[in-house]
Please model this.
Amino acid sequence: MEALGHTGGVPARTRRAHAGLTGALRTHGRPLLELLIFFFIPLYLGPLLIVQYLVGSYHAHPITVAGTYFPDGGFLFDLHVLWKAGHDVVIGHSPYPFVYPAPAAILMVPFGALPWKVAVVAFTLLLIGAAFLTLRLLGVRDWRCYGAALGSLPGTSAVTLGSFSWVLALGAAAAWRYRDRRWVVAAAIVVVVATKIFLWPLLVWLFATRRGRTAAATIALGIVTLFGSWAIIGFAGLRGYPHHIASIGKLEEARSYSPFSLLRTLGITSPSARLILLALAIGAVAAIVVAARGRDGDRRAFVWAVAASLILSPIVWVHYFVLLFVLIPLYRRTLSAAWLIPVVYWLLPGQDSHGSTKVILVAYAMTAAVAAAVWFRRPSLLRPSPVSR
Model:
């Protein structure tokens, strides 16, 4: 007869089996759970959806946005626009009306030269590569952090929309990582500002941290890049571009997550909201300058510059918040609560705030939590390169 233990008459063999199972779960359960959360879920939410789209098994309701018909429901919405601009340049046509400045159209020429589905694959690989390189440049080695970034709503939607956001994050990360290498910083900031002008506070950061020669090189390179790109397309669309952007802003200003959008949901008129935004801009510039002169000034001024870019942009979509993954490694390079906060963006209704004050404030609360974690953390261990400013 099998021996019985002293607790409830449970057979010793059963107790040993239970203990073995418990030990196995403790040993392998957490790694398996982490593999599910930080690898398989991000893989399904992003790259596998792209694969489904390419093989025709992704189905969505067609939509029309700003007069453009999207039979796939807006999947890869931004890439449709970007690829067409690059394709227009390739075939000798003007890309305008186009939402981005001319350098963006020129950057898309290699993709515009490819058939659509091949371009989708190439651009998706570029975005995922940019995401990985962004964290790598900032010293992140914990693989779970990569999964958390790509599995968040900002990280995933940047890929499934085919937006520039991960490329912008890479540019900002490079500007910080190589912050004392003048021409590397200049090139990185020019790329991000020439494609998405809302990141202009990075220039203020350079001036505030006494990198005047780097700032001057950035401005000079930016002017050459901007007008050189427009010259390639015969300056097509240059004169009407400001009006075109203003028109787009009026169509979308009430739907995004920007402070301007929040003010409009509160019933404040557009002229008054713009005056408030101007005051915010002055305050943000002052905050960058003041931060630069305080303790841990370089890092804190950089945090303020990235935060100011999001605050001052007249239009902010959820995928813009991938810029938070440039700031989080300055707080901690291993998995922590700060890495998981952006995952909560999945509670939002999507890229569109639907003009809801509550929805915008929820997004702000999550963003502020990340910014606060970065601000109060001890100085980053990343050291600048010993190169003249």
In short: The two ends are 83 Å apart (CA to CA). Residues 45-235+257-375 form one domain.
